[in-house]
Design goal:
Elements: H1 11-29, H2 33-37, E1 40-47, E2 53-55, H3 57-70, E3 75-87, E4 90-100, E5 113-122, E6 125-135, H4 142-153
Parallel strand pairs: 1-6
Antiparallel strand pairs: 1-2, 3-4, 4-5, 5-6
């Protein structure tokens, strides 16, 4: 992996970005809105599977806290596909994720998703500027949907 200037990207930076994503998922899986919001920049944004949008760490924490108080969502199982640096202070993490409903042992294929994280480094620290959760429906291409489900099942 290289920066636009051709210099190798810092493995410490990539690890930091992956850690942000892992913390976001851990917060979701532990049903903890504050923990889920913590890796976001103060003005970070989250776009959910249903298209809902929260702007700012405080709004993300409050919204997720309300959701977690009212019901038990399925847990994420995810695989990072890659981290691409856009410069010294910005990167995109791409991942795929499936969800295992409470009380179940298998992924629910109809909620497979692509995750995109845009991370930005401010004051020497990485944070999530944007997290987007996009349905991986593959309309008209059931082979791709099944391939993704099998890839995610291998993580269980």
């Amino acid at each position: 992996m290289s920066s636009p200037t051709g210099d190798p990207a810092s493995s410490a930076d990539e690890l930091a970005i992956r850690a942000l994503y892992n913390q976001l998922l851990a917060g979701w899986n532990q049903r903890n809105g504050d923990m889920m919001a913590e890796p976001f920049l103060e003005d970070g944004e989250s776009i959910g599977f249903d298209g809902s949008q929260q702007v700012g760490r405080a709004e993300i924490a409050a919204t997720m806290g309300t959701i977690f108080a009212d019901h038990s969502p399925a847990a994420f199982v995810a695989k990072v596909r890659g981290v691409r640096f856009l410069g010294a202070d910005a990167a995109i993490l791409r991942a795929v994720a499936g969800m295992v409903p409470p009380g179940k042992a298998d992924i629910e294929p109809k909620v497979n998703t692509h995750h995109t994280v845009i991370a930005q480094k401010r004051g020497g620290q990485w944070g999530i500027a944007l997290f987007q959760n996009t349905p991986a429906q593959f309309h008209g291409r059931p082979d791709l949907a099944e391939q993704l489900t099998e890839e995610l099942r291998a993580l269980l």
